[in-house]
Design brief:
Layout (H helix, E strand, L loop, with lengths): L3 E2 L12 E3 L7 E4 L5 E9 L15 E8 L4 E12 L12 E6 L2 E8 L1 E3 L5 E3 L4 E8 L3 E13 L1 E6 L9 E5 L10 E10 L5 E10 L5 E6 L4 E6 L8 E2 L4 E9 L6 E9 L4 H11 L1
Parallel strand pairs: 2-4, 3-5, 13-15
Antiparallel strand pairs: 1-13, 4-12, 5-11, 6-9, 6-10, 6-12, 7-8, 7-11, 14-21, 15-20, 16-19, 16-21, 17-18, 17-20
């Protein structure tokens, strides 16, 4: 069983404001505080650009909104419904579609189309900036409805201490690693051993930070074990004194680097010496 990341679920509510992407939001920047929710819709829409099988149809029109939240937050998006025919036999988006991406990171780009009243797909950003584009050339009646929330950058990883199971280890890395992490960013990573008497070990496989970015490693009670910035070539192996270990990453500079990638291991206290040599020497 792989490590578990806890994701906050949406609870639809009539109190959440609804905004039309081609009316109230088009061409604007919207700021979201931590915990704030919005619903973005595209209801009735008329277009004169043509039929999907018309080879002479003009370029699609676009409605767009840029979303911004706090440096310690990111966006989580879920779709209530999609009503955008793919116009293809392989489910690729040949007609109208939604494109969601994070500026400066091309690999974050995703497109959404199809017809579904309960889509299983969604989007979770890694940074505080997000752009939602709606490209259309057809007329629609209820094109889509999505819900978004600005969530805290708090990631929880849990695992058992059962030997030889894949769930005993996992990886933590900065956003878009090995690309440069965002210049204004912070996150907290909480690693939990489900056994109260178990321990945790962290090995940094890659570590390249700017001098103004740093990682703070803490026990569950908030006491700091270690702190490392870009002056370190690579931190040593970190072992917890209890079943919970916390790491906080802070970046606030104009020259971010590629960041870090770390492997965490969850194990029983009786296996501490074995895991120390195994993960350090053969990772």
């Amino acid at each position: 069983m792989n490590s578990l990341m806890l994701i906050q679920l949406f609870v639809p509510s009539k109190l959440i404001p609804e905004k039309n992407i081609c009316q109230q939001m088009n061409g604007k920047k919207q700021y979201f505080e931590a915990g704030q929710r919005d619903i973005i819709t595209m209801g009735n829409l008329s277009s004169e650009t043509g039929h999907p099988n018309n080879s002479q149809q003009s370029a699609p029109q676009r409605c767009s909104v840029e979303l911004i939240t706090c440096p310690s937050c990111h966006f989580v998006i879920s779709f209530h419904y999609l009503n955008l025919p793919t116009c293809s036999s392989d489910d690729s988006c040949w007609c109208d579609y939604i494109r969601i991406h994070e500026p400066y990171y091309k690999q974050s780009r995703q497109t959404f189309c199809g017809i579904s009243t309960h889509p299983s797909t969604g989007f979770e950003s890694l940074s505080k900036l997000l752009v939602i584009d709606f490209f259309y050339s057809l007329s629609h009646t209820g094109a889509f409805k999505l819900e978004l929330k600005a969530a805290d950058n708090i990631y929880v990883y849990e695992g058992s201490d059962m030997l030889y199971e894949s769930g005993m280890a996992g990886y933590i890395e900065t956003p878009f690693f090995p690309d440069r992490y965002p210049s204004d960013y912070s996150a907290e990573y909480i690693i939990k051993n489900l056994e109260k008497k178990g321990l945790i070990q962290v090995v940094f496989l890659d570590f390249l930070l700017s001098p103004w970015s740093f990682i703070e490693v803490m026990e569950n009670n908030g006491s700091t074990l270690h702190a490392y910035n870009g002056d370190e070539s690579r931190p040593p192996v970190i072992s917890s004194n209890g079943h919970v270990l916390k790491m906080k990453f802070y970046a606030n500079d104009d020259n971010p680097k590629s960041g870090f990638r770390a492997k965490y291991s969850i194990y029983k206290c009786m296996f501490q010496s074995f895991f120390h040599f195994s993960f350090v020497d053969f990772v």
